[in-house]
Design a protein that fits this description.
The protein is mainly alpha-helical. It contains 6 helices and 7 strands.
Length: 192
């Protein structure tokens, strides 16, 4: 079987050329030549195998110059349509990314995605492992809040014996004369 280019309407391979000598014509259906003409003539097929206007398979039917031009135009159109749709797609992607970025409101930020948390945890673990491998000189940790000095418990001087109060006065270099508890307490409180 041989398939003719669409503009070949008839063929006749002479007997001298190995053909059957009979003229073959493209079939016509309802007054219109068939789009595909498949010739079955063993004698002529041998000769037509070397003819560039004929092909072995239907898929390989040679194109006419017009058909080549139409196909190339279609390919260009298809390429342009493809480029257009790619442009549109990338434009749409940019929009989506921008929308996602603008959707990162503080409300969202308050709930970091699990992936982010996992990455942060990983980073911390890696840091800890690195520190274990290369111990850092120990750093004294200063607490953020300094503990207040314990408030001196105000001794209830009135509960003490006047002799104790006198002794306290003497220890602090205060006058220890007199025997009035109130006087000793007054002196002690003044210097407190
Ligand atoms: Zn023939």
């Amino acid at each position: 079987m041989r398939h003719a280019r669409s503009d070949v309407m008839s063929v006749a391979v002479p007997l001298e050329a190995g053909g059957c000598g009979v003229s073959h014509s493209r079939p016509v259906t309802n007054g219109v030549p068939d789009e595909v003409w498949t010739l079955t003539c063993p004698a002529c097929e041998v000769f037509l195998a070397k003819d560039p206007l004929w092909s072995a398979t239907e898929a390989e039917i040679p194109e006419t110059p017009d058909e080549v031009k139409i196909r190339e135009d279609n390919e260009k159109r298809g390429q342009k349509a493809l480029e257009r749709s790619q442009k549109e797609l990338s434009g749409r992607l940019v929009e989506v990314v921008e929308q996602l970025a603008s959707a990162q409101t503080p409300a969202h930020a308050a709930e970091p995605d699990p992936g982010l948390i996992a990455r942060l945890v990983e980073a911390q673990v890696a840091k800890i492992l690195a520190e274990q491998a290369h111990p850092q000189p120990s750093v004294k940790i200063i607490p953020a809040t300094v503990e207040p000095e314990p408030e001196p418990v105000e001794m209830d001087l009135h509960k003490l014996h006047w002799k104790t109060l006198q002794k306290m006065c003497r220890e602090r270099g205060l006058p220890d004369d007199g025997s009035s508890k109130d006087e000793f307490i007054r002196r002690l409180k003044v210097t407190a």
